Amino acid sequence: MLKGIAASEGIGIGKVIVIRDQDVTYEQKTVANPEEEVKRLHDAVDEFMVKTERLAEDMEKSVNPKEAQIIRGHMEMLEDPFMVSQMDDMIKDEGMCAEAAAETVLNMFKAMFEGVEDELIQQRATDIEDIKSRLLKILLGIAEADLKTLPPETVLVVGDLTPSMTAELNKDNVAAIVTESGGMTSHSAILSRALEIPAVLSVLNATATLRDGATVIVDGSNGVVINDPTVDEAEEYKKKQAEYFAEKERLRAYIGKESLTADGIKKDVFCNIGNPKDGIKAKEKDGEGVGLFRTEFLFMDRDSVPNEEEQYEAYKKVCDTLANKTVIIRTLDVGGDKEIPYMNLPKEENPFLGYRAVRYCLQNKDQFSLQLRALIRANADTSGNLWIMVPMITTVSEFKEVKAFVEELAAELDMPVPKVGTMVETPAAFMIADKLAKYCDFFSIGTNDLTQYIMAADRGNSKVAYLYNTYDPAVLRAIRQIIETGVEGGIPVGMCGEAAADPLLIPLLISFGLTEFSVSPTSVLKTRAEIARWSKAEADHIAETVMALETAEEAYEQLKSFVRG
Ligand code: PEP
Ligand code: MG
Fold first, then answer.
1. Over the chain, what is the mean pLDDT?
2. Ligand 1 pocket check: which of 425, 447, 519 to mutate, most ligand atoms within 8 Å of Cβ?
């Protein structure tokens, strides 16, 4: 079994065709007639433009206009007068052949893009490589690999899938794609998702390991490639594939639709994200907003706190991606199980009950102010739908202190104060929810922590996992009370813990009055479909039955019987 990045979901089973890089080496020579060589270059550029426009038009039909822009971007890059004139100069001044001039200049641009930290800009380096290879092939008279006439059920295996290759694919004949390079946000990943072809990227030595004609299974949802599967494996995956198609077909009906209960009550299905790139996923997966941006991921895998500008860019990017939609960004939730080594938090006996989240932030106000200023500025500079959410609140004073700090910083910046709300994830916050509701613009229930604190069972300890159960009447009562208290207080109540995506719990949450369900991007359509299954009256009936039960096991069985029914 080979592993890689799960870049485009679904299961593809078929026969391998390995596309090897075509040889574009050429003999370096000094040209005798530079004028003629410049003309040869310009003719090649013209041919590149004509071919690329044709590719983009094909792509508009086979994928969509937005994705075709990626290919048109290649034309724009080469249309940059500076780029071709630099090639001209190298031919005229140094007697370089057209191939060498093109390669030298394009390599310079590639190095420039590679040097930028932003991954989306780095992606341009792949585009330049694609342009270079195609322009060299035109100059050298090498025909492009033919991807239009691949046999049915082809599993395409390539070193790097370039945008132009993807544009040429006859998607009906491609069961799956496997590459040796590329990440989640590479153009090849974006395009394979747009084409709905399962893809696993960055599989080490794929072109050497997978042989032409071999049968392989590509599980694009889990990043797995199985070479020469056994009969049992083939059966298992055929079954999974059929289930995947059936579910996808069922959920297709919910794309672009409002989230409504069976009797038409409007709900919101938002997304949980961990970085700005996930914002793109949230949009692609039809999320109606972001219900939780876990900003601690911006602070991890580095040596120091991200400065105000870096944070501002990250928050603004998500708001821009989700233009005009609500984006709820949580302030730093460090501590507990979320370690950030350079912050040097002391080792504690009970880290989940210790110095974490808002407790840390309020004792490190200089650092906290960087995040709050970045959030206030991002809110002011975008559509103004950025909401600030505070984790681990246990007292009214804590929340008031955060809110006052936000107001003070907004006044200094002379910018509007964003909405500020709290996660309700501690028993204390739940007990004083009515008092908190007076100061909070919204609640979002963090069931992951709420369950551990209500049940006094560490969420990561397998020995007490039998107690860590959201179906427990204690937790269900807390959830009901938080929602009802928020609704009475006139503020929106959402849920961003894992429970929001649990189909068994959705009727209960509808009955209690939850308005926003924040789930992982891949769960958006499923959650919308589950919401559509129940009317308020049906949900109330389920809630009444389940809330009368005494144990988590009874509640679980009862909920299962309703959902099956
Ligand atoms: C929660 O506690 O439910 C939650 C959403 O936050 P986290 O899982 O990041 O603690
Ligand atoms: Mg939490």
1. 92
2. 425
